[in-house]
């Protein structure tokens, strides 16, 4: 029998962290962060990182793992996440993967073989960033948006996703029995309202001051960490390059949620739906699965 691993997916602002903490307490679990930006020590408010209080309630892994100046990518995540899973299982606890970075989570569920990345071909170097972005969007919109404006990353991503031989070896049989919980807000308007309110709340909590505390880092705007939604807009504001446009940040957040919903719909069909009001039913389903 394969060891069991619980996965909590869903768009931003649907209470994934709160649900993960409750289930960790319920089933003696430990949480592995699968958010590509909560991994950075210096980013807190704008990435909606679990609060200090929440981090003390249960054991978290891969939170505050690296500095924004350090290397971090899907391969780093996968390697460390697998080590965390093994450690948690060896402690007779339940690993709970929780986060909104879809490809990170998928790399575990489908056991991506990331060791066979194709060699550089330079096939896309003659294209400009807009052409690269449009091409990559046809394969993977989320990946394209994550690397928007970065010629090197966009061309490299195209080499990988466009390589048929590589894609044919991309996934492998998993060593774990994954159970997916999909957190949702069925009313799309209600979800968007929650996202808008969350942005306002993060501003009140001191998001601008958080960015100001980082501006002494050289070439801050080029760091991968600053691709997190809102950070580049606030950085441009505090450095006097542009006015602060909160509506744009809210719009980007809503579009991100829409992409997350589409990804989950297209990639997973077997899951437990958490609709904010059926916690007891979710617990019952997990209990049956664990037995």
Brief characterization of the structure:
48% of the residues lie in helices and 10% in strands.
What does this structure look like?
The chain contains 13 helices and 6 strands. With 291 residues, the protein is of the alpha/beta class. Strands 3-2-4-1-5-6 form a 6-stranded parallel β-sheet, with helices on both faces. α2 (52-57) links the parallel β2 and β3. α5 (129-139) packs parallel to α7 and α9 packs across α12 (246-267). The longest helix has 22 residues, at 246-267. The radius of gyration is 19 Å and the shape is globular. The N and C termini lie close together (11 Å). The mean pLDDT is 90.
DSSP helix fraction = 40-55%
Uncertain spans = none
Query: What letter string, H or E per element, gives the SSE order?
Result: EHEHEHEHHHHHEHHHHEH
Oligomer kind: single chain
Strand content: 5-15%
Radius of gyration: 19 Å
What does the main sheet amount to?
6 strands, parallel
- The residue-averaged pLDDT reads 90
Count the DSSP helices. 13
Distance between the termini: 11 Å
Descriptive keywords:
291 residues, globular, 48% helix, alpha/beta, 13 helices
SSE topology:
Blueprint: E1 4-9, H1 16-26, E2 29-33, H2 52-57, E3 60-61, H3 74-90, E4 94-98, H4 102-109, H5 129-139, H6 141-146, H7 151-161, H8 164-168, E5 177-183, H9 188-204, H10 207-212, H11 231-238, H12 246-267, E6 272-274, H13 279-290
Parallel strand pairs: 1-4, 1-5, 2-3, 2-4, 5-6
Helix pairs in contact: 3-4, 5-7, 9-12
């Amino acid at each position: 029998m394969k060891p069991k691993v619980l996965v909590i997916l869903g768009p931003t602002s649907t209470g994934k962290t709160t649900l993960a903490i409750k289930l960790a307490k319920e089933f003696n679990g430990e949480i592995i962060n699968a958010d590509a930006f909560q991994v950075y020590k210096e980013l807190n408010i704008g990435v909606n990182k679990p609060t200090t209080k929440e981090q003390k309630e249960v054991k978290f892994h891969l939170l505050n793992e690296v500095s924004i100046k350090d290397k971090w990518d899907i391969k780093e995540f996968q390697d460390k996440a697998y080590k965390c899973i093994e450690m948690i299982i060896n402690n007779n606890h339940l690993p709970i993967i929780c986060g909104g970075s879809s490809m990170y989570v998928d790399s575990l569920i489908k056991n991506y073989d990331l060791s066979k990345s194709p060699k550089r071909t330079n096939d896309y170097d003659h294209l400009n960033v807009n052409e690269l972005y449009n091409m990559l969007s046809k394969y993977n919109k989320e990946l394209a948006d994550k690397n928007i404006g970065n010629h090197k990353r966009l061309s490299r991503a195209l080499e990988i996703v466009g390589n048929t031989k590589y894609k044919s070896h991309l996934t492998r049989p998993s060593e774990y029995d994954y159970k997916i919980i999909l957190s949702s807000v069925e009313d799309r308007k209600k979800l968007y309202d929650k996202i808008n309110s969350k942005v306002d709340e993060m501003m009140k909590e001191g998001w601008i001051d958080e960015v100001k505390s980082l501006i002494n880092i050289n070439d801050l705007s080029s760091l991968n960490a600053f691709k997190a939604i809102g950070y580049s807009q606030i950085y441009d504001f505090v450095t006097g390059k542009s006015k602060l446009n909160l509506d744009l940040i809210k719009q980007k957040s809503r579009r991100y949620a829409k992409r997350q919903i589409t990804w989950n719909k297209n990639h997973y069909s077997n899951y437990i739906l958490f609709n904010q009001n059926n916690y007891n039913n979710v617990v019952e389903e997990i209990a049956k699965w664990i037995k």
